[in-house]
Design brief:
This protein has helices at residues 10-23, 68-83, 109-121; strands spanning 28-38, 41-52, 56-63, 90-97, 102-106. The chain has 122 residues and is α+β, with helices and mostly antiparallel strands. It has one domain (10-121): Trna Endonuclease, Chain: A, domain 1 (3-Layer(aba) Sandwich). α2 links the parallel β3 (56-63) and β4. The longest helix is centred in the middle third of the chain and has 16 residues, at 68-83. It starts with 9 loop residues before the first helix and ends with a helix.
Amino acid sequence: MRTHKARQTECFYEKMLSCYLYQRGIPYMTQVDCFIQHGTTQVLVGRLDMEIAHTVILELKVGPRITSLDTAQLMKYVRAKIGCGMRLEHAAVVCFRDDERVEICEVEMSEVASLLNKDETS
C-alpha cells in the first residue's frame, strides 16, 4: 500500500489493510468494541478500527490531516485496551490524506505508561 488514490472511503482502506495482513498470515480484527470496567459493569467506550496481532491498534482516518480529536480518540482506546490487560506495543492514527499522502501519528507507549501510573496514584 505505498500509493493510494485520494477520495476513497475509510472502509476501503480498512479492507485494503485487511487484505494485506491476511495475505501475510498476520492475525487482525476490525471494528473491535472497546470497553472499560466501571465497578462490575463493562462500559462501551467506542469501536476501534483495527487490532493487529493483539499488540497493535490502529485508528484509520480519511481527510486533510490528523487532528487532536483523532489522537484523543486513540488515547481513549489505548487506555481501555491496557486497562483490560492487553499487552499493547504500538498504537497509531493513520490518516489517508486528500493529497494522496499517508500521515501516521504513533503514540509513545512510555508516555502512556506514565499517564496510567499518574491516574492510579491520583
